Amino acid sequence: MSTSIRQRRGYHHGDLRVALVRAAGALLRESGPAGLTLREAARRAGVSHGAPYRHFANREALLSEVALEGFARLSEALREAAPRGGRAVAQAYVRFALEQPQRFRLMFWGESGSIEQRPWRDAAQDTARAFAEAFSGFARGQEDTQRAAAAAWALVHGLSQLMLDGRIGPAATDQEARERFVGEVLGAVRFIFRAQPAQFVA
Length: 202
Prior knowledge:
mainly alpha
C-alpha cells in the first residue's frame, strides 16, 4: 500500500487540517504565494485533490490559515523573549521576519499587497500585546507601556522590512553579519529598549 493511500485512510479530521497548513507553509517558503495551490498542498500532504475542501473553501482560506499560524508563532517567540527585555523581543521579531520572509509578508500585506484585504487583522493585536508585555516593567502605567510598545514595534517592523527588501544591512546569505547588524541597530536606539520609567513621560 502506498504512503499516499495510507495517509488518505489514516488522517483524522484535525490531523488533515494541520497537515495541509504545514504543507502550505512549506510551499509558501519555497516559492511564495504564487506557488501555493490547494492541489499542491494536497499532494504534499498525501491526500486526494478534493480533500482540502473539507477544511478550506478555497485557496485564499488556506493562505489565511497560514498567516494566522504565523502570527501565533511570532507571538510565542516574542513572549519567550519578553523576560529578557525589550531588546530581546525586538531581536526575536526581526529574526522571525528574516527567517520566514514569505510568511511575514503574507501576515501583514496579504497576497495582493493590500493591508485592507487581509481577513486576519485582529490576529496582529496579539503581537502588539506581546510587545507590551516586554515593556510592562519599565513604564509607569498602561498608557506609557502602550506607547513604548508601539514605538518598538514600529521601529523593528520597519527594520525588518528594509532588510527583507535589501535596502539596508548585509546580504541575506550572511546570517551572522545580519544578526550582528540587527544588534548594532537596536543598540543605537537603546533609549527605547533600555529605557527607564522617566523617559516615557510625555
